[in-house]
Amino acid sequence: MSDLVQRIERTLHALFPLNRSLTGKGIDDTFDFIKSNFFTNASIKAIKSGSNVFDWKVPDEWHISEAFVKNANGEKIIDIRDSNLHVVAYSSSVNKTVDKEELLNHLHTLPQFPKWTPYRTSYYKRDWGFCCPDELLSSDKFIPPFKVFIDSKHTNGHLKWLEILKSGESEKEILISTYACHPSLGNDNLSGLVMALYLFEYISSLDTRYSYRLIIIPETIGAIAFLSQANIQKIIGGMILSCVAGPGQVSIKEGFQKDHWINKAAHMAIMNNVGPEYTIYPFEPNGSDERQYSSPGVRINTPSIHKSKYYEYDQYHTSADDLDYISSQYLKETLDIHKDWIHLIESFCYPQRVMMSCEYQLGRRGLYPTLGGTLNQNAHYENKRGSHKREFYFDEEIKITGKHVNAFSWLMHLSDGKNSNFEISEKSGINIKIINEAINIMNRKKLLEIK
Description:
21% strand; alpha+beta; elongated; five-stranded mixed sheet
């Protein structure tokens, strides 16, 4: 197990037990952990409870200290201390004895998966409730009457999110968004939160062209609150990090603008890492915070790359989405795809020739074999005693091959400042890595400008 995988494992185990919701101690403890272990310069932004943000109102803070159900024998049969999922998030206080019928009206189970506990919330309607395995209902412990007790309070406080900016050469920003409002769920949403930390740690180590803004928010209301005060004119694209460490296939949910360059970069990153065997989910206005970022008046294109996407696995929003379901190694593999995605985002450009007419004479610049007739000749056999090579080194790092020479030809043909490097890769059929290397070489030779 690599050092990085071990670090990821420790972070998952540290954050999994925290009882996160839209607001409250779980969120505060999570942000304290991030500031102590990752980003001391992170900002904690806050909006007061009751504030209007577009069509929404910021809810009260929710704090819970204890919750349980006791049977007729005084035995605790449901206890929040056993699992954060046992209480419906944002439940109001309750302290009374109820019969079986009333308890069942406030009890949530999954008959199809009788050993699993569901995850349920009641953010915007005051109510109370418990969640438990369905098999409890038919056990000899389910004896009425039941003592139900929830010690919680709703206070006039704040909705908070964590935000950090990594400045680049340009003020144009790439938004990296993940959510931190689900308690003790491994793939959704802890994996996205943890990967965001390691991805942004990596980005922070780079000299970048673009600026990058990481936000860790409560889902939906947090994105809406962020957008209510953000300078969205600076944000040219983004990504949602969610469900990235499951055992399922890599997939992409495309951004609302399918042909947007950041969407193309995501596809290229997946292809570079796993090949063509991945699932494509076309955009639709549900799921995570892409709903807010793609809305009229905002229109930020935010595709998301997944490993076991939300909705698509049985364990989703249940106690079975635990640390045994996910893998630190899977998370690291998805992290590698996202790192590649960042490099592709950084590479996006519109190359433009310095001299527009006709081909450059590449040979006198060391970009073309001095011996003619060998390129694209299948019958060519290198004379081992000679020094004339079909493949040669431009420098110590880049070995120029026939693919590079072919890329030079396409770049001379298409680099008019109107075709991006992504479009040139598509039109030529040459891998974006080769195209980008060829652009870099021609730029260093002062044949192309990068715009």
